[in-house]
Amino acid sequence: MEHLDLIRDIASWVLFLVGGAMVVIGAVGLVRFPDFFTRLHAAGVTDTAGAELIIIGMMLQSPSWLQVAKLGFIGVFLLLTSPVATHALAHAAWMTGFKPMQGTDLRYDGDGK
């Protein structure tokens, strides 16, 4: 029984670390990417995947099936709503005339901007 607890602890911590790293990478993408649409992509993808991995890690550590079910419902809710919200933001920006960077806008000029 102790071996199963150790395996569950290791698996959950791996999920916590990978999910947390994805969230941090997404935060760095929000700061470093050049325009709204690439920043939105960084936030949307890492928010969905990182949060799901963290929730699965919490499910492995939950002491009761009721808590696992609640976390499962939260995970499904995030899995369905986060991409929809990201798409809605991108679509609203596009419809108001906000266009992604193209061509020479993407050229790096060496000044760090």
Structure description:
- The chain is an all-alpha fold and 113 residues long.
- The chain has one domain.
- The protein has helices spanning 2-32, 36-61, 65-95.
- 11% of the residues are buried.
- The mean pLDDT is 88.
Brief write-up:
The protein has 3 helices and no strands. The chain has 113 residues and is an all-alpha fold. It has one domain (2-97).
Measured by DSSP, the beta-strand proportion falls in under 5%
Structural class: mainly alpha
Instruction: Tell me the Rg in angstroms.
Output: 19 Å
Give average pLDDT, whole number: 88
Shape type: elongated
Please supply descriptive tags for the structure shown above.
3 helices; 0% strand; mainly alpha; single chain; 113 residues
